[in-house]
Design goal:
The structure holds two protein chains of two kinds.
Chain A: E1 4-7, H1 11-23, E2 28-31, H2 37-42, E3 50-53, E4 63-65, E5 69-73, H3 78-83, H4 85-90, H5 92-100, H6 104-109, H7 112-117, H8 129-133, H9 164-170, E6 174-179, E7 182-187, H10 188-191, E8 206-213, E9 220-227, E10 238-247, E11 252-261, E12 268-269, H11 285-297, H12 309-331
Chain B: E1 9-16, E2 19-26, H1 31-38, E3 57-60, E4 63-66, E5 79-81, H2 93-101, H3 110-123, H4 131-137, H5 149-158
Helix pairs in contact in B: 2-5
Classes of the chains: A alpha+beta, B alpha+beta.
């Protein structure tokens, strides 16, 4: 672990510094909380020559609202996002996801930008250099030609285990991105490849803020749930972000959105569940939604040493059922 | 100039436990390496080194951070508190609580837990501290000895709660219960 540390004091300065590093043929990384990057550097998975800190850029950690939307600065810590009144009010699933990620200390160190941009993970990839030297190199490491998790695979299927990403995709979050040609705003879902979980944001581009449009808070009900070996510290094996719109008069679901994360390499947004719209709100609803999602997600689910593919698929159904029932109970329908 | 330095070694000022030190560090050094190797503050432990176990927790401006994944360069100008800065002539309430309740055994995770508890006491008033809160706030700290219950007891005691040990079973063993002590050969 040997790199040169640089401080950036403005977004433009950070992008320019990173562009200069890359132009000179050096490897560079941005650092904010460091909770994902430093362990990766220690394991020699990445080996940057320059690390550019964003922590001293003023104002990038603010959470503010205007008439149409809420804006979360990329440097806002997960703890701040989870406890923010604004986020809790307009995007409860995002607040819940931020509050369930990692461990308390990591939540106060890690930032929302970093949580989105975290590397995809696999138990055969996130290991030390010594460990890797004892195995034939896998697809994830350089020129490897084998997948240790599943020998039938022909490419790396590391999983994007961010808690925030499914919740942010659910609420249609947009990302403000600073690049060499200035600021632009894109839909977060558009830059994350659903098949592989790869985020198309090459350096020196940088997420500066997340914007979430204010929905009619009364109409949409949303929630987030995750499954992991231990409740804390561990990455999710499955995460579900779910939003529903009820119509109390006809007692029916008028709209529903479900995004499954961590079970498949990239976040999976179900399209088939739109067929369940106008279904009456009853005890069968959760089962039906869960069944629809697992029919669609099928073999995409990635098994791990902790939980098999079959178990994870079944649990997606169970978790959706529980979430729907919790939402029904809290709404009294 | 948009960036501050291009050197791999840097002379920085660190404020540790109320004293200001000037030290030359590698810009890629973690706070833990600097604390342990350059200042000999070896109370802060390194276990996993990957931000998973919580043994290296220190306070930076009153908030808990894992020193093993914090760069020393990123805490310049901030007030760092390590386990050495907690006791002031006599033990802190948290240390005393852990001592009285038997909240540690080998003690390797204890400095981290004490610092995390300090951060929690900084954030919440004592009357709002419940067992659930302690369990949640210390959930990122692995202990391989105690089973956690007595650690939570110790911290609750520091917060002013009475520990009743309800449900604890007392088993009185007689000398005769052990084979061999009554003159007979054990196992026969």
């Amino acid at each position: 672990m040997r790199f040169i540390y640089q401080d950036a004091f403005s977004v433009k300065g950070a992008v320019q510094a990173m562009a200069a590093v890359l132009q000179n043929g050096n490897r560079g990384r941005y650092i904010a909380g460091g909770t994902d990057l430093i362990p990766r550097i220690k394991r020699s998975i990445v080996d940057p020559d320059y690390v550019i800190s964003l922590k001293n850029i003023p104002g990038l950690d603010r959470i503010i609202e205007d008439e149409q939307a809420i804006h979360i600065g990329a440097l806002a810590s997960l703890k701040e996002v989870a406890s923010s009144d604004i986020v809790q009010k307009y995007a409860p699933a995002v607040a819940q996801a931020a509050g369930k990620a990692a461990a308390p200390v990591l939540r106060s160190m890690g930032t929302i930008g970093g949580n989105i941009m975290q590397d995809r993970r696999c138990c055969y990839y996130n290991q030390s250099l010594e460990w890797h030297e004892g195995w034939p190199p896998c697809y994830g490491i350089g020129k490897g030609r084998v997948c240790h998790r599943d020998s039938a695979k022909t490419r790396c299927e590391r999983v994007l285990m961010s808690d925030l990403v499914p919740a942010l995709i659910l609420v249609g979050a947009k990302a403000d991105i600073a690049g060499e040609r200035g600021l632009r705003t894109v839909l977060l879902e558009d830059i994350i490849d659903a098949g592989t979980g790869i985020i198309a944001l090459p350096l020196p581009n940088l997420i500066t803020a997340i914007t979430i449009g204010k929905k009619q808070a009364s109409a949409w009900k949303e929630a987030y749930a995750r499954m992991s070996v231990r409740k804390t510290i561990d990455f999710p094996e499955i995460s579900i972000a779910l939003a529903m719109q009820f119509d109390a008069r006809s007692n029916a679901v008028t709209d529903v959105e479900i995004v499954v994360g961590a079970a498949t390499p990239g976040p999976f947004r179900s399209k088939e569940i739109k067929h369940v719209v106008m279904h009456p709100i009853d005890s069968n609803l959760g089962e039906l939604l869960g069944e629809t999602v697992i029919q669609e997600i099928g073999p995409l689910v990635v098994g791990t040493p902790n939980f098999s593919q079959w178990y994870k698929t079944e649990m997606i159904k169970v978790m959706i059922k529980r979430l729907v029932n919790e939402l029904r109970a809290s709404e009294g329908v | 100039m948009t960036v501050s330095n291009t050197k791999s070694m840097e002379k920085i000022k660190l404020s540790i436990n109320g004293s200001i030190y000037e030290v030359t560090v590698s810009t890629s050094a973690t706070l833990l390496e600097v604390l342990r190797n350059q200042f000999n503050f070896t109370g802060t432990k390194e276990a996993c080194g990957m931000g998973e176990c919580g043994a290296c927790t220190v306070l930076v401006d009153g908030k808990a951070v894992y020193a093993c994944i914090t760069l020393a360069m990123s805490v310049r100008g901030k007030e760092i508190t390590t386990i050495e800065g907690v006791a002031d002539g006599r033990l802190d309430a948290i240390q005393q609580g852990l001592l009285e309740e038997g909240g540690f055994q080998c003690g390797f995770c204890t400095p981290g837990k004490v610092m995390a508890a300090k951060a929690m006491f900084n954030e919440y008033p004592k009357e709002r501290i419940t067992r659930e809160l302690v369990t949640r706030e210390l959930s990122g700290h692995l202990c391989r000895c105690t089973g956690y219950v007595k650690t939570v007891d110790g911290i609750m005691k520091a917060a002013g709660h009475e520990i009743t040990h309800e449900g604890a079973r007392t088993v009185t063993l007689q000398v005769d219960d052990f084979p061999g002590n009554d003159g007979s050969k054990g196992g026969e």
